[in-house]
Amino acid sequence: MEPATRVDEGRGTTRSASHAQEEADRALLGVRATLARQLARSRSKKALAFGAIAATCLASAAMTVIVVALLLARESPTWWRTVDPSNPTVVELAERVEQAVVSSMHRARPLGEPWTVAVTAPQANAWLNVKLPRWVRSRNAHWPDQIGDVQTHFGDGKISVGVKIGSGAADQIVAATVNPRLSEDGSLWLSQPSTNAGRLDIPAGWTIARLQSWLPPEIRERDMTGRMLDALRQRGPVLPSTWVDLEDGRRIKLLDVRVEHERLLLTCVTEIPNDQSSTARAD
Question: Domain of 97?
């Protein structure tokens, strides 16, 4: 009976070992499952943390861009110089500029010989802020109350013109920079236009829409205003013809317009038109 007893004990031992192995495997699987769940939760937390950080960074970047844009829009262009039209010095300069231009146009000159008038930005700004409002009112038009300073700048071969618009809470400077160009037919175009709100580059369409919104009807509906806005849209010349007929029968014709050394240079010629009955005038 002893051998039988040994065999039974061996089988029991085998079953016990197999059972222990199964328990160990189940325990190992449980450990693996626990580790997998912990790893998944850890990855999920890291993904959520990364997503939160990324969203925060994007929001911060967007807010930074918006704040910078607003600050740039509220700042004056680097070339902007405020002009006081009531300042006696400014008034005197505007008077001298107008008299000099009129004198140059009516001066006795050899016919067909080119001559040039040079205008600096301070001279142009004095005239724009002192004489331009008076000229508008002399045409029975209303000078918009929203308009503050009108400024121009000559540099890098281009002309920049800006207007300070009063909006109640704060003023906004809207400016356009163009490259004046005479075509072969004598019309004057404004090429390569760019527009700004303060120091912020903005689409030309926004600037044109803003101008149209605050210009009074008596100015907005003028042919010259329409040509200016169309010229900024690149739809046509700002001046279809660039000559002025004088009272004595002579004609002043613009031959070239350019910017050099921060001056606007206008080269003209005095001539007698072939058709003496012509009354064409540049607006």
Answer: 88-271
| Angle of CA points 28, 33, 37, to nearest 5° | 150
pLDDT of residue 57: 43
CB 195 within 8 A of CB 203: yes
User: Would you say 209 and 198 are in contact if contact means Cβ atoms under 8 Å apart?
Assistant: no
Query: Residue holding tokens 């045409």?
Result: 139
Residue 71 tokens read as 């600050």
Q: Minimal CA–CA distance to 174: which of 155, 203, 196, 152?
A: 196
Residue 120 predicted with pLDDT over 70: yes
Same-domain check for residues 131 and 44: no
Query: What's the structural domain count of the chain?
Result: 2
Three-state SS for 259?
strand
Task: Evaluate whether residue 52 is within a structural domain.
Answer: yes
**118 and 27 within one domain:** no
Q: Where are the beta strands (DSSP E) in the chain?
A: 114-120, 147-155, 158-166, 171-182, 188-197, 200-202, 243-245, 251-260, 263-271
pLDDT, tens digit (0-9, with 9 covering 90-100), for 215-238 = 767 667 777 778 888 888 888 898
Kindly report the pTM of this predicted structure: 0.67
**How many angstroms separate the Cα of 29 from the Cα of each of 23, 25, 32, 33, 41?**
10, 6, 5, 6, 18
